[in-house]
Amino acid sequence: MFDLILRRATLPDGRTGLDIGIKDGRIAAVEFSLPGATGEEIDATGRLVTPPFVDAHFHMDSTLSYGMPRVNRSGTLLEGIALWGELKPQLVQDSIIERAMAYCDWAVARGLLAIRSHVDVCDPRLLAVEALLEVKRRVAPYLDLQLVAFPQDGVLRAPGTEELLLQALDMGVDVVGGIPHFERTMADGAASVRLLCEIAAERGLLVDMHCDESDDPLSRHVETLAYEAHRLGMQGRVTGSHLTSMHSMDNYYVSKLIPLMAEARLGVIANPLINITLQGRHDTYPKRRGMTRVPELMAAGLTVAFGHDCVMDPWYPLGSGDMLEVAHMGLHVGQMTGHDGIVASFDAVTANPARLLHLDGYGLEVGCHADLVVLQANGPVEAIRTRATRLFVLRRGRVVSRCAPVRAELDLPGRPQSVAFTTPVV
Ligand SMILES: [Zn+2]
């Protein structure tokens, strides 16, 4: 009766020993000891089975371009933006597609099956937009790629950028982006937030802006973003990415700001790998961490996700599409090493970004898509601790990636013959 049964699964909420029955690409049953013959069975042997990882913030037009045309010597945000400006005129569509497709292969192997990627719309040729729309079409059978129209150089800085953004939306880009802190003045930044939210409201689209990505305690575009979300009736449809200035803001001001954000049901995306490296660059010592106030925002009931942001591009030389690495860094920077904090960090790379992307059929309930990852770990904490191997990745009930469990063979007198860094499973 089932096409496939995943037996003896441990779920992220701690329930264990459950069988997951899959039929026609969807979860058809989650029960103990499911009876019946099936086409295929996978024994999870008590290991963690989770819905896939979701990256709510990425730049797929620049990924895997590290060193093109040169490396970022200072490692700073501004040299990265300048470098991207040098690379942009040299881009050809085929190479963007090739790099993005290669990254999507990595993503699938890491159990990362949904990505929201910003795509720069400031290039009058809209080359990257065309390329990523093609990638979105190609990967659709195995990966949900959501695109954000991102005016990297500011929507108000150069004449014609608003038209390019509208053109990108007409071509099929899903979400409205922005970068208010990069506009010329605070007033222009606020005007850009208003303009872009109105465009999204009119078209019925979601909003996700790079917002206050600086250490300036007075960069307060997030306040405008929350205000506009509320004014336009877009509660739960607007997200602020980075919000790093919140790290440096006055505590009294933040005590007023967070309830305003909660009222607008603003989504929040921190990008810990990038925020910890790019922020605090003007500090001597002590150096600020520069990540937004993740535990406080979570405590206020906001949906907070951790994004990867960059992999091997002008801004970041490292990364491999591993959202467990992102969660690992996020919980360190946010000092979330208590048990609940670690579990919340796992949610920040799975269920929370799925909510921000408005993904349909995501989860472990009956009727959800059978998009699942079996990890070499007994739960979310061990998964993050070991950056666990993805043993099986399923998309719509079909195994799309598999990996042998990692263990080292030892040759030590009187000691076990191998070691896997995991605690024993059933
Ligand atoms: Zn970004």
Topology:
Elements: E1 2-9, E2 18-23, E3 26-31, E4 38-43, E5 49-50, E6 53-59, H1 77-87, H2 93-109, E7 112-120, H3 127-139, E8 144-150, H4 161-171, E9 175-176, H5 186-203, E10 206-211, H6 221-231, E11 238-242, H7 245-248, H8 251-263, E12 267-270, H9 272-278, H10 294-299, E13 304-306, H11 323-333, H12 339-347, H13 351-356, E14 372-375, H14 380-386, E15 390-395, E16 398-402, E17 408-409, E18 418-419
Parallel strand pairs: 1-4, 6-7, 7-8, 8-9, 9-10, 10-11, 11-12, 12-13
Antiparallel strand pairs: 1-2, 2-3, 5-14, 14-15, 15-16, 17-18
Helix pairs in contact: 2-3, 5-6, 6-8, 11-12
This protein binds zinc ion.
Short note summarizing the structure:
This protein has helices at 77-87, 93-109, 127-139, 161-171, 186-203, 221-231, 245-248, 251-263, 272-278, 294-299, 323-333, 339-347, 351-356, 380-386, and strands spanning 2-9, 18-23, 26-31, 38-43, 49-50, 53-59, 112-120, 144-150, 175-176, 206-211, 238-242, 267-270, 304-306, 372-375, 390-395, 398-402, 408-409, 418-419. By secondary structure, the chain is an alpha/beta fold.
